[in-house]
Design a protein that fits this description.
- About 30% of the residues lie in helices and about 20% in strands.
- It has two domains: about 140 residues, Rossmann fold (3-Layer(aba) Sandwich), CATH 3.40.50; about 210 residues, Dihydrodipicolinate Reductase, domain 2, CATH 3.30.360.
- The relative contact order is 0.18.
- By secondary structure, the chain is α/β, with parallel strands linked by helices.
- The two termini are about 30 Å apart.
- The chain has eleven helices and 15 strands.
Length: about 400
């Protein structure tokens, strides 16, 4: 029988909701415990996972002797403290992006995991998506020559989904750079080999009612001379899903007639924190989805990686290759459950002893680039990076 990793979950909010089909259906994971301050969330977890334990705080979860690893899906500003607690208890940790909100916190997390001899994996980010990993393998193989230029473009309605107050405060990890830039930077770093050299960027906060960054554009230089341009907007107007055949970020078909739905819904909200809570896991959550592969891969907007002999476009189905005289698509096999690649990496690290790609050092390097993006926009000029790590290919 396949050995299953006994996993606890810290935080039953929106991130957990998005990962729930993965956590519930993955072949090598068994959910055995959770921690959340909301009684209704704990009650729902006990209902969905009979025999599990539910705790009111992370400290109690860390003390559970049956828990081997903890998926940390608490708000950004709590990631560091929760990882330190997990490491002190000898638990492996899978941490939602962004890894933390400061480099000092990241360094402490990496050091704590090394001292405790446990695995620290950062995810999910969209650099776990099957087509992104497939494109990275193509680039690493050198089939199409060296990667020289990446163009990444993502437009969503992120800023107009219900938010807790701190999610609109940049210093506490709010805004699109921490939450969404972490995806985009992670993808670009993975495709480019990881070793960014510098960042130059401009951020925009043009809605006074949402006082944090809602958009950015950035130029990233790699140590080998390759470059990437990143643009993101969460203002709910143009949507890059239109460029991917209306396949949404989570791999589901979308109805373009729902244009503006997020803004309209938010306009009717009187208590935004309560609206955010209603989107989290709890009494009113939908039933657990049946296990099975998704229809499409997750995706994060338009991305084109230009190599010396071909351009590679990442889609919700795979990688479309544009060569000198022909164009073709290499479809990427779908995971057995959505986002299975994230838990595949965690289980390989803990159960099989395979070093994770998205390690603590990797997550710290991605956060460094996100912080540099904010710093460049605030102070002007180019920011040189000092904590970058290679993919290990």
């Amino acid at each position: 029988m396949t050995r299953r990793l006994k996993l606890g979950v810290a935080g039953l909010g929106r991130a957990f909701m998005l990962m729930l089909p993965t956590l519930a259906g993955h072949r090598r994971v068994e959910l055995v415990a959770c921690a959340d301050p909301r009684p209704e969330a704990r009650a729902r977890f006990a209902q969905d996972f009979p025999g599990s334990r539910a705790y009111g705080d992370v400290a109690a979860l860390c003390e559970d002797p049956d828990v081997e690893a903890i998926y940390i899906a608490t708000p950004h500003q709590f990631h560091a403290a929760d990882v330190l607690a997990a490491c002190a208890a000898g638990k492996h940790a899978l941490v939602e992006k962004p890894m933390a909100v400061t480099l000092a916190e990241c360094a402490a997390m990496v050091e704590a995991a090394e001292r405790a001899g446990v695995q620290l994996v950062i995810g999910h980010s969209h650099s776990h998506d099957g087509p992104v990993l497939a494109a990275r393998r193509m680039i690493a193989a050198g089939t199409h020559g060296r990667m020289r230029m990446i163009s990444a473009l993502t437009f969503t309605d992120f800023l107009y989904r219900p938010r807790r107050p701190e999610e609109l405060v940049t210093a506490q990890g709010g805004g699109v750079v921490f939450s969404q830039g972490a995806h985009q930077v992670d993808i670009v770093r993975l495709l480019g080999g990881g070793l960014l050299q510098s960042v130059r960027a401009q951020c925009f906060a043009w809605d006074p009612a949402r006082p944090t960054e809602g958009a950015y554009t950035a130029f990233l230089q790699f140590a080998d001379g390759a470059a990437a341009t990143l643009t993101y907007s969460g203002h709910g107007r143009f949507d890059t899903d239109e460029l991917l055949g209306w396949i949404g970020e989570t791999g589901h078909r979308r109805d373009p007639a729902e244009y503006g739905a997020a803004r309209r819904a938010l306009a009717t909200v009187t208590d935004e924190s309560a609206a955010k809570t209603r989107r989290a896991y709890g009494r009113e959550s939908a039933p657990l989805p049946p296990p099975g592969p998704p229809e499409f891969h997750n995706q994060f907007g338009f991305l084109l990686a230009c190599c010396e002999r071909a351009d590679l476009r990442i889609t919700a189905e795979g990688v479309t290759v544009y060569g000198d005289d022909r164009r073709w698509t290499e479809n990427t096999p779908l995971p057995h459950v959505p986002r299975a690649e994230v838990l595949d990496e965690l289980c390989a690290a803990v159960l099989d002893g395979i070093p994770p790609l998205h390690s603590g050092a990797w997550g710290m390097a991605t956060l460094e680039a996100c912080l540099a993006l904010l710093h460049s926009a605030r102070e002007g000029g180019e920011v040189v990076l000092r904590h970058q790590v290679a993919t290990g290919d």
